[in-house]
Design brief:
alpha+beta; elongated
């Protein structure tokens, strides 16, 4: 009779729970307090202020080409270095770890929407000086907080945005990393080319000094001309150690970017190579398109979404919290009786918590979250302005350096012809030694400036690609957003 009564009681309890569960779940999805996030409108200018023309063309850029912009230089060494940096760079590994952390936090936040079940077992001995008793118990405890006002759902929403922001931060690290590797590689090649130019001029000036020395010994030249030749020679010689020091620094920085120790890439650059040549044409997207592509702007927008959701989490604290608790188990004073019918126990019922007095802490928490949301909005607006500024400056710098290049090429060509003519006239006795030294100094300066211009032009293009948001596969982010929605 007793067993039948317990069985009927459990059946009624189970039926009640099954009937109540859909209603509670429906109720839990009805109300979500807090602001519903709407992405801010970006008032991007319709076109760039910097003039586009020549190799800079306004038009839709190829996303795949922009994602791997370094391949447009057609330099296999540069491509290999960036591939190695993606695998070994420590900043990128840290950013990847942050994405994994955010993904784990998202999973933990989502777990709050589901019931929790624990198993328990205990042994307790109690009594006084005359008697003692044992208590054995084992069972299962279940609890489920009904998300009646959407606090947990807002937490999940914030965790989703945090995960997406972490992913965009990693993409931004990719953009920065590829640009930094390319810039340091260009520096290495630029210093190598400047060294070659200086060493070639040094050899020329050594020959000039040797000739002047022979003339001085033969009494055909004075000491002033000899010392001027020597001064010119030693000035060029003094330039070489500083170029070598800068070259070593660029190599060491490049190795660290690859996640390797300084000096690890020195053998790879034993042979000098040219500065990478810029492609003939570059397509520049409209400002609004670039803002949508840049990971730092996307990250700032996702951080704003996360802060907006957390305002709802804070507001949910103002409302009642309903938790369903239940347990079923066994309890007996003897281990032998633990599995008998009489040892079975159960309990169930809801628990309602309503905040009455908190000394204003809940309201203060809402105010704090609202202020954080406002700060995130300001950071987003700042990221937009910074992105537009970087593109404008990069466009202008590249265009001006490109224009400067044509003048420097003419200057270097004229200096070369002047040096050859001065040497011929000097040997023919038509000009004095001063004219020869002046043309040699001008030749070194023009050639060195032209090499530096080549490095600056390529570096400015790298900075332009970075400002355009190139260097990360945008299609992967789109796929990620689809999977997370």
């Amino acid at each position: 009779m007793r067993k039948n009564l317990m069985r009927r009681t459990k059946m009624h309890l189970l039926r009640a729970c099954l009937l109540l569960l859909p209603a509670l779940m429906l109720l839990a999805g009805c109300v979500t307090v807090g602001p519903d996030y709407v992405a801010p409108e970006t008032n991007a200018p319709p076109a760039w202020n910097a003039a586009t023309g020549g190799s800079l063309k306004a038009g839709r850029a190829d996303p795949e080409e922009l994602a791997h912009w370094w391949e447009t230089f057609q330099d296999p060494v540069l491509t290999s270095l960036i591939d190695r940096a993606v695998k070994g760079n420590l900043d990128l590994k840290e950013a990847s770890a942050r994405v994994r952390e955010a993904r784990a936090r998202r999973t933990a936040a989502g777990a709050g929407l589901l019931p929790a079940l624990d198993s328990t077992a205990s042994f307790q001995r109690s009594g006084d000086s005359e008697s003692a008793r044992n208590l054995y118990s084992a069972g299962f405890d279940a609890r489920w907080e009904i998300d009646l006002f959407g606090g947990v759902r807002r937490s999940v929403e914030a965790a989703d945005a945090d995960l997406q922001a972490a992913s965009e931060a990693m993409n931004d690290t990719l953009v920065t990393l590829s640009a930094e590797v390319a810039l340091n590689y260009v520096e290495v090649r630029t210093f190598q080319s400047r060294l070659e130019t200086a060493e070639a001029n040094l050899a020329l000036q050594q020959e000039t000094y040797r000739i002047e020395q022979s003339l001085a010994q033969a009494g055909l030249s004075d000491a002033l001309a000899l010392q001027r030749a020597r001064s010119n020679l030693e000035s060029t010689r003094a330039l070489i150690p500083s170029l070598r020091a800068s070259l070593e620094e660029a190599k060491n920085r490049l190795a660290v970017l690859l996640g390797e120790h300084p000096g690890a890439v020195h053998k790879e650059f034993a042979l000098h190579g040219p500065v990478p040549l810029v492609p003939p044409a570059i397509s520049i997207d409209a400002p609004a398109d670039i803002l949508r592509r840049r990971p730092d702007v996307r990250q700032a927008e996702r951080e704003l979404a996360a802060q907006s959701a957390r305002v709802g989490v804070a507001m949910a604290e103002l409302y009642p919290r309903i938790t369903l608790n239940g347990s079923i188990g066994l309890s007996a004073v003897s281990s032998g009786d633990l599995l008998t019918a009489g040892s079975r126990t159960f309990s169930y019922g809801p628990r309602i918590t309503l905040p009455i007095f908190s000394a204003g802490s809940i309201r203060a928490g809402i105010e704090a979250r609202s202020a954080l949301q406002e700060q995130a909005l300001i950071r987003y607006e700042s990221a937009v302005l910074t992105a537009l500024e970087e593109v404008e400056n990069a466009l202008n710098a590249y265009a001006q350096e490109l224009e400067r290049r044509s003048a420097l090429q003419e200057s270097a060509q004229a200096a070369q012809e002047a040096a050859e003519l001065a040497e011929y006239q000097y040997r023919s006795g038509l000009v004095d030694f001063t004219a020869l030294l002046d043309t040699q100094r001008s030749l070194l300066s023009a050639q060195d400036e032209l090499v530096r211009n080549s490095g600056a032009l390529t570096s400015n293009l790298v900075r332009l690609y970075k400002a355009l948001g190139g260097g990360w596969p945008a299609h992967e982010a789109e796929q990620y957003e689809k999977e997370g929605s």
